[in-house]
Amino acid sequence: MAEQDNKALAFDASKVKLGTNYLLVGSDAYLIDSVIKQITLVLKKKEDIDVSTVYGDEVKAGELGEYLDTFTIFSSAKLVIVKNAEKMLKKELEVVADYFESPSDIQCLIVVTEKTDAKYNAWKKIISGSQKVQCDPPKFVSEIRNWLLAELSKEGKSMNPAAINEFSDRIEMDYFSAANELTKLLLLVGDRKQITQQDLNLSLSGNRAGTQIDFFRALGRRNIKIALESCTLMLQADVEPLQIFFGLYRFYLNLYRVNLMREKHLTDNEIAQKHMNDVFYSQRKEYLVFAKNYSLKALESIFGVLLETDSLLKSSLTDKTLQIELCIIQACDTK
What's the rounded Cα separation, in Å, for the pair 127 and 44? Predict the structure, then answer.
């Protein structure tokens, strides 16, 4: 089968069928998930299909061969999804490539990779035997605008040109963030067909205070001195100790989630684009770095410190500022 090259946003799911294999190339997790979901839904409507997902940085050649060649009595067809294919070693990559020499007409294979290398014969076989779908993050505001217009049309909603421009200009250059913000807008307007600039102002997220950002950066870098100085500045700005405590809890919970997802072999791109909705997109890469400074074991110990601090803060006799400062010191110093 000759390679066909499509953009993810223009993917035509009506042509999906068993025996067709797909190569998803790029780093945009939103687009990758969108294409995989469309393929899966179409195949499930047509067949009693068995779906398997494997990861290139984890699966071994023998196991991968079984996934590609073995059928069960419980399903009439198969969909096999190979993620992180760019991380596969030569032996595993060749197993995937060999499949394309005699592909099954009752199976669909989706290979997901950030990049390909046509210098290698294995990649040549995969590329030539697949329908290629490009899943690149947006580079220009116009791409977000075009995505928005398509999504509004699907939902039966409209925006005037000024509102469309404002949404496109204010949103992060990221489809997943744009989708989250559009979901909030749709919930806000309900059955109303027209989305106004006033709706945008009510819905779109604002910016966090610089002092709080500095505070989180100091925590992420385990810099006790700067963290305490930032804490003092927030207290002087009439931020309550309990507010700072809740900020501490959310910060360390985000790091804990990142490390858990890394344990499950999710890529940093996938984590940042899909699973950090309460962290501003421009700060997500920093959080990924911060998470490397704390092991899961250290974070579990920090939650113990936070639990104890929470109990002390609820006491009317305690010095709340002192308890917050002690909590910061203990958290940054936990190994």
Answer: 25
